[in-house]
Amino acid sequence: SQSVEIGLGSILNVYRDWAKELYPKIPFPTVAWRIAHLTGRTKLLDMVDRVAEGELDGM
Which residues form the Chromosome segregation in meiosis protein domain (predicted)? Predict the structure, then answer.
């Protein structure tokens, strides 16, 4: 549902900022790929990619 995606987008925005602070030398998509690989969720990966590209900013 859309509310779940908006919530996920917000969580990923927070995670993105956190990841950039902790791993400034590692590109965010690399971290995202690792997280998605561990969870095995392709939809999460799609969301992470979109957040990484800035498409979900402001949600």
Answer: 8-53
> Which residues form the domain of 26?
2-52
* pLDDT tens, position by position, 17-34: 776 676 556 555 666 667
> In the 8-state DSSP scheme, what is residue 26?
S
Q: Taking the mean position of all CA atoms in its chain, how far away is CA 23?
A: 14
Task: Report whether pLDDT(51) > 50.
Answer: yes
Q: What six digits make up the tokens of 25?
A: 């030398």
Q: Is the pTM of this model over 0.85?
A: no
Asked if the structure places residue 58 within a domain, the reply is: no
Q: How far apart are CA 51 and CA 59, in angstroms?
A: 10
* Whether 31 contacts 52, CB under 8 Å: no
Q: State the pLDDT at residue 59.
A: 44
